[in-house]
Amino acid sequence: MTIKMTFLNLTASDFHGHYHVTSEKGIKTVKQAPGSVLKSMGGKQVLWVTQEFIPWYVRGNFHASIFWYTPDWQVLFGVTATAPLQFLTIGKRPYWGIGTNKNIQHGQMHWTKRLADQSKPYIWPDFKKFKITATPTVSHGNLEILVMISTARHN
User: Fold this and answer.
1) What is the CATH number of the domain that holds 98?
2) N or C: which terminus of the chain has fewer CB atoms within 10 Å of its end residue's CB?
């Protein structure tokens, strides 16, 4: 089972971030860890977590999340994903959600652990400066999410 989150920054701002992965000991392998800075103008960071310990028998049972912010913009956004436990490939498929904190000086990140439609892209609303779109590819054993950050267009 695999969870892969790719972040692509097409704006003129650098983003700073942090990731977290939890699982049963020995279950997961972080194949690629993101750096703490998502550079401007084409910067890319990837969080790729997979299970390499007897995946044909028992798989899943891990969680990954990542959030990003830019110092000149006082808002956090993030993605969270969970790979539920599967036994002999029987069980729920991985699922994902989003996080937002509209004021990093006050308050906590507000996570939506599971979006209603797991196959549709999600666009963060109410972000005036940036357009942030997460596009998932979901299967029974894998979840990939591409998050594109671009400059918002105003009419």
Assistant:
1) 2.60.270.20
2) C
Question: 10 Å Cβ neighbour count for 110?
Answer: 12
The residue range of the domain holding 80 is 2-151
- C-alpha to C-alpha distance for 68 and 82, rounded to whole angstroms: 19
Q: How many domains does the chain have?
A: 1
pLDDT one-digit tens code per residue, 109-130: 888 877 778 899 999 987 788 9
Structure-block tokens of residue 104: 């990093």
Burial of 46 (0-12, 13-18, 19+ CB in 10 A): middle
Predicted model pTM: 0.90
Alpha-carbon distance of 110 to 90, in angstroms, equals: 31
What does the longest C-alpha to C-alpha distance in the chain come to?
54
Do 71 and 42 contact (CB within 8 A), yes or no?
A: no
> Are 128 and 152 contacting, i.e. CB atoms less than 8 angstroms apart?
yes
| Amino acid of residue 28 | K
Task: Check if the beta carbon of residue 145 is closer than 8 Å to that of residue 6.
Answer: yes
Residues 6+ apart with CB under 8 A from 19: 33, 34, 47, 64, 65, 66
